[in-house]
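Researcher: Here's a chain I'd like modeled. Treat it as a single chain, no partners, no ligands.
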Amino acid sequence: MKGFFLLAVLLAGCAAPRFSMMIESEPTGAKVFWAAGPNEAAAKNRNYIGQTPCSWEGECKRNHTFKAPTIPFYSKWVPGVVIVTAEPPSGSTNLWPQRRVFHTDARFHDGDPIPAKLSFDLTRPPASKDAYERQFRK
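Model: Modeled as a single isolated chain. Structure tokens:
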């Protein structure tokens, strides 16, 4: 029995830390996606999270930053990114996609902490047409 308890404690200590993030938008019903990569341009594979309001749960690092996949040809000195994007519901007008970029850990650079809650205001237009095109090129 003592050995079983010790094994349970050891296995519990090895479990990867997890995060839970609440995602909201104004107006509700936005489709939320995430992508990760070595930089913003390379983060192309979008993964569907849900429709707002929703919750996103996953693994993180011990310092509560995102755990992005490692890219072998990039250096440990260059932080990767995790991008969370909210897109307006289909058929809506006067609403714009929004996104948040989180940098991951790198040598001598702490990653951005994972917030408990993320809010998007889709009624806010981008700063300029050029900024919009740079952020959301397909």
